[in-house]
Design a protein that fits this description.
The complex is a heterodimer.
Chain A: H1 2-6, H2 8-24, H3 33-37, H4 41-76, H5 84-89, H6 96-106, H7 112-124, H8 138-173, H9 178-191, H10 195-208, E1 209-210, E2 213-214, H11 230-267, H12 270-277, H13 282-309, H14 314-319, H15 325-334, H16 338-366
Antiparallel strand pairs in A: 1-2
Helix pairs in contact in A: 2-4, 2-16, 4-16, 8-9, 8-11, 8-13, 8-16, 9-11, 10-11, 11-13, 12-13, 13-16, 15-16
Chain B: H1 3-12, H2 21-43, H3 46-60, E1 63-68, H4 83-92, E2 97-99, E3 106-108, E4 111-116, E5 122-127, H5 141-153, H6 162-165, E6 168-175, E7 178-183, H7 200-203, E8 226-232, E9 236-241, E10 254-259, H8 263-272, E11 277-278, H9 286-293, E12 298-304, E13 307-313, H10 335-343, H11 347-354, E14 359-361, H12 387-396, E15 400-402, E16 405-407, E17 415-421, H13 425-441, E18 444-450, H14 454-458, E19 464-470, H15 476-480, H16 504-515, H17 519-536, E20 539-552, E21 556-558, H18 576-580, E22 582-583, H19 595-627
Parallel strand pairs in B: 1-10, 1-11, 17-18, 17-19
Antiparallel strand pairs in B: 2-3, 4-5, 5-7, 6-7, 8-9, 9-10, 11-20, 12-20, 13-19, 13-20, 14-20, 15-16, 21-22
Helix pairs in contact in B: 3-19, 10-12, 16-17
Classes of the chains: A mainly alpha, B alpha+beta.
């Protein structure tokens, strides 16, 4: 049973179990004697195996989904009309030998099923092929652009999630008041603003400067290119302010609304009345009792959003010329640069699947009733 | 998804988590970290220092920053195909010849002289002896011969330039200053071999040229007016002036191509002074150009472009051996119908309304900036805007107007389709005008806008299409795409052909001009071909769109256009613009704004944060009262 002791899942689950009974018992701490007594090894062992089974099932499902993504990505993008070779050479002087040579280089002269088997074989060895337009391995192109995307969307993600949860909680707790109406209205307005338009507005006001306001931030890009060390970090942060601001402004409404509505659902609950009756301060009731219970839908949303962090934000990346994966995906699609499109699609889909799986796996830790 | 369900259940019996503190702490830590990363600049004194350093650097170094939208596809001259990449190669490597900035005729570059043999099959180039690679070695004919042989070897090196060498039999370098190219058959384009010559001693060490992108070791060894010093994908390409360039060193010390994926953002960067030059893609929009006209220190260059914008008609798609395919409208096989369509196009209105004056009315196939080959129709030949003559031609062709519609002999009304590029707003706008004008004539028109027109195009499934090509100083390529040899071998296969034109007379003229080594006589033949194309009604040039671009006069004092009288700056045939650019005294482009800007930024951010903090504290205090 030592294994079960050190398993955080089991411990958390047990604690949650205890907490639940705690609330059920009006006597408060005194009532804990009962549930603590139940803390023998039997049910916990059962819980752990059940949890492991549950987690394994989720992981297996994720693997199957990833394989399906791998297969569909190959055929899906071959449905895009257009000849990559012709598209790449469009408007320039090329001879038919050149076109032929390029087709041969890309393997486009082979039958589709042969291309497919070659593709599957290569992917299993981690080789997504060579990009048609950049003549570089797809994996290199992706790893090159990934950090930029993670920095941008990751920072924005953390910020809009925190802001969303915080404001969502506040607005729900004081729903109907001026603050609630203001924040919900503002968030919805920003949510419905096209991100590229907001980005351009920010560029015009804060980069170029307007009236007495001087240009404070760079208009685009990720770095000036002549800094190193700490100056480089500051430089990148300086470049990151406006795109992150855009993403946060457009993105926080989602979290806010979900948090607000799930907290509103909790607000009438008896256990909150009980908590108040125990003499807890309103703030404590909110923080300790209401918010944790309302958090589950928000956690789902957080993980769904986290999955899309990898995919970047095409429009914002374009407006701010951010060298990330979103822009790369757009370029790949417009050719269509099949190996690059397939590779990116696989990476994006994998990120979403993985994050959903992680969410599935940790639900039972947040709420022990899930997965039983 | 069963997750929905899980939420539902979670609401009914909630469970507060006990150990919240670590979570809160972690979240706070994350927030703090992110905040420092995201907002460090306005709060931190470091940027001030950095900006000051950058300014100090700027004082000594003159930098010209160009905003470009394209990504670099490859920096290897054997692979690169995009305009940005090939422009960079123009700047970093020498080509055998260059084009005169005044009138586009071939002028000496790496070769000082070129001479055909009497049988027209051997060309001898004299290579200059005063060109050195940036690593100090001398650039010789051996380098040129090695480059051409490498392209001819087809070891995956044919991607970019093999069209230049298809007719080559043998390339040798008998001496360091002599390059000999033997041809299979005469070829008049030998002074227009746009192939960057690479240093043999560097490139022969490359393991697999077909996969080598030339973007690992900086500075890249070259002998052009600039040396490639740094490259970051989708961010920038940096070049430094080659002080030993034989034609003279460029005036700017550094040239940076900075990526701006959005044109409006690039224009904003120009207004701010972060970039010195904005090239349109392919041109600044009229709105952007007008917006820049009022700016101090910004000059909008509205020069003749190298493109033509044409109305192509489907002459009946077919393969090289004459097999017909596609579904082009049979009415268009009649020259009178094709001409009638063009006669009812008011080109002046299109230039004024659609291009808002940023274009020149179209006529001959080759744009007027290439004065040597440009051709204008004679008065009797010209198909000006004349709806009455168009109506008469249609009557003659047997398409009578009945109840407002032109009806063919088979009793069916004449309805046409036109392919338009959904990505090009000009196509859509012109389509609307055509619909109106041809509607007046009694012809129905369906404007079919697609993101990718190449599929119906190569399948021959269109009646008319908006067409356009960028023309080179040597017109061989844009002429060659209308020959029978360019037709596809199999139906619907993509091929070099533009518009399925195949005509014996035109082909004969094409062969003749290719074998004609006398420039004047060759130009005469080319003009005959243009005349034939004009009369045929297959390619109706509506306009030559201008190159609309802008630069800061407080950063660039002067810059050469091509043609020099009035022309474009970005995408020239040659390195003239960047090589000739003279820095204005004082400022050069700098990133991130002035140090005053940063200081004010810090102040503003501090005030905002302090205000926000105070407000927050006040609110907390007031609600704390409520809470108790």
């Amino acid at each position: 049973m030592t294994g079960a002791e050190s398993n955080p899942a089991a411990i958390l689950a047990a604690e949650a179990e205890a907490a639940r009974t705690d609330r059920g018992a009006p006597g408060g701490p005194a009532g804990q004697a009962g549930p603590r007594g139940r803390r023998d090894s039997g049910p916990r062992a059962r819980d752990t195996t059940a949890y492991l089974q549950y987690a394994a099932g989720k992981l297996g499902g994720a693997l199957v989904s990833m394989f399906a993504v791998l297969v569909t990505s190959f055929f899906l993008f071959r449905l895009i009309p257009g000849d990559p070779v012709k598209q790449m050479t469009g408007g320039r002087r090329v001879s038919s030998e050149q076109l032929e040579a390029m087709r041969q280089e890309f393997g486009l002269d082979q039958p589709v099923w042969q291309q497919f088997t070659a593709y599957c074989g290569n992917v299993l060895t981690g080789d997504f092929g060579t990009s048609y337009q950049f003549h570089a391995p797809v994996m290199d192109k992706i790893t090159e652009a990934l950090p930029a995307t993670l920095w941008l969307t990751g920072t924005a993600y953390v910020l809009y999630t925190l802001i969303g949860i915080w404001l969502g909680t506040r607005t729900a707790w004081r729903n109907g008041r001026l603050g609630d109406r203001f924040h919900t209205g503002l968030a919805l307005t920003l949510y419905s603003v096209p991100s590229f338009w907001l980005g351009l507005l920010l560029i015009i006001t804060f980069s170029v400067g307007m009236g007495p306001l001087p240009g404070l931030f760079p208009t685009g890009g990720m770095e000036s290119g002549d800094e190193s060390g700490f100056a480089y970090v500051v430089d990148v942060a300086h470049h990151m302010v406006l795109p992150v601001l855009t993403l946060v402004a457009v993105g926080y409404a989602q979290t806010l609304l979900v948090m607000r509505s799930s907290l509103l659902d909790e607000m009438g609950s008896d256990y909150l009345t009980t908590a108040r009756a125990k003499g807890l301060r309103d703030d404590l009731v909110r923080r300790r009792h209401a918010v944790p219970n309302a958090l589950l839908p928000t956690v789902t949303l957080m993980f769904v959003n986290l999955g899309t962090v990898v995919a970047g934000a095409i429009l914002v990346e374009t407006v701010f010329s951010w060298p990330g994966l979103g822009g790369l995906f757009y370029q790949a699609l417009s050719v269509p640069d099949l190996p690059l499109v397939q590779g990116l699609f696989f990476v994006f889909a994998t990120a979403v699947i993985l994050m959903n799986t992680v969410a599935d796996v940790i639900y039972p830790l947040l709420d022990p009733r899930v997965g039983r | 998804m069963d997750r929905q369900d899980q939420h539902g259940r979670s609401r009914t019996r909630p469970a507060p988590a006990r150990s919240r503190l670590p979570f809160v702490a972690a979240a706070a830590a994350a927030a703090a970290f992110v905040l420092t990363a995201g907002l460090a600049t306005p709060l931190n004194p470091a940027p001030q220092k950095a900006a000051a350093e950058a300014a100090a650097e700027d004082d000594g170094k003159k930098t010209l920053t160009v905003a470009v939208a394209q990504s670099v596809d490859s920096l290897s001259p054997f692979i690169a195909q995009r305009l940005l990449s090939t422009s960079i190669h123009r700047l970093t490597y020498e080509y055998l010849t260059n084009y005169d900035p005044k009138d586009n005729h071939a002028v000496p570059a790496f070769a000082t002289k070129w001479q055909p043999s009497a049988d027209k099959l051997t060309w001898t180039y004299t290579i200059r002896s005063n060109s050195r690679w940036s690593d100090g070695k001398k650039a010789t004919a051996q380098d040129a011969a090695w480059t051409f042989n490498k392209i001819m070897s087809k070891e995956g090196t044919a991607t970019a330039n093999s069209n230049f060498v298809t007719n080559f039999r043998k390339v040798t370098a008998p001496s360091p200053t002599q390059l000999v190219i033997e041809l299979k058959k005469p070829q008049s384009t030998m002074a227009a071999l746009d192939v960057p010559i690479v240093p043999k001693h560097v490139w022969e060490k490359v393991d697999d040229i077909s996969k080598f992108n030339n973007d690992k070791d900086f500075p890249v060894v070259g002998n052009g007016p600039f040396v490639l010093t740094d490259f970051k994908v989708d961010q920038y390409v940096k070049l430094r002036a080659n002080k030993n360039f034989w034609r003279g060193a460029p005036k700017f010390d550094e040239l940076v191509f900075k990526t701006y994926k959005d044109q409006d953002a690039a224009v904003a960067a120009l207004k701010k002074g972060e970039v010195s030059f904005v090239a349109g893609q392919p041109a600044l929009t009229p709105a952007q150009a007008n917006g820049l006209k009022g700016e101090p220190d910004v000059k909008v260059n509205n020069g003749p472009g190298r493109r033509f914008f044409a109305l192509a008609t489907n002459p009946g798609a077919r393969t090289r051996d004459g097999k017909k395919f596609g579904d082009g409208h049979p009415a268009l096989l009649d020259k009178r119908v094709r001409q009638a369509l063009f006669l009812s196009v008011d080109r002046k209105a299109i230039v004024d309304k659609v291009f808002q004056g940023n274009a020149v009315e179209g006529a001959g196939y080759i744009p007027p900036r290439f004065s040597e080959y440009s051709w204008q129709p004679s008065a009797g030949q010209e198909l000006g805007y004349d709806p009455q003559r168009a109506a008469k031609l249609l009557d003659e062709a047997g398409y009578e107007k009945k109840g407002g519609k032109r009806v063919g002999k088979d009793g069916k009304p004449l309805n046409l389709r036109i392919l338009c590029h959904a990505t090009d707003p000009n196509d859509k706008a012109v389509g609307k005008y055509l619909k109106e004008w041809w509607g007046d004539l009694g012809i129905g028109l369906k404007v079919n806008c697609l993101d990718d027109v190449s599929v119906p195009w190569y399948a021959g499934e269109y009646d008319l299409a908006f067409d356009g090509w960028s023309v080179n100083p040597d017109p061989d390529f844009v002429l060659g795409i209308h020959t029978c040899a360019a037709l596809p071998e199999k139906a619907k296969e993509s091929a070099a052909t533009d518009n399925f034109i195949c005509d014996k007379k035109y082909d004969e003229l094409y062969e003749k001009q290719l074998a004609e080594y006398d420039p004047a006589k060759r130009a005469g033949l080319v003009k005959q071909m243009e005349s034939w194309l004009y009369d045929s009604g297959y390619m109706n040039v509506i306009a030559y769109p201008n190159a609309v671009e802008a630069y800061r006069t407080d950063q660039i004092k002067s810059i050469a256009t091509m043609p020099s009288a009035a022309g474009n700056i970005y995408g020239q045939d040659g390195y003239w613009s960047w090589w000739s650019a003279v820095p204005a005294s004082g400022k050069t482009s700098s990133d991130g704004g002035s140090s005053t800007g940063v200081i004010i930024g810090i102040a503003v951010a501090a005030v905002v944060l302090a205000g926000g903090g105070a407000l927050f504290a006040l609110r907390r205090r007031s609600t704390a009262d409520d809470r108790e």
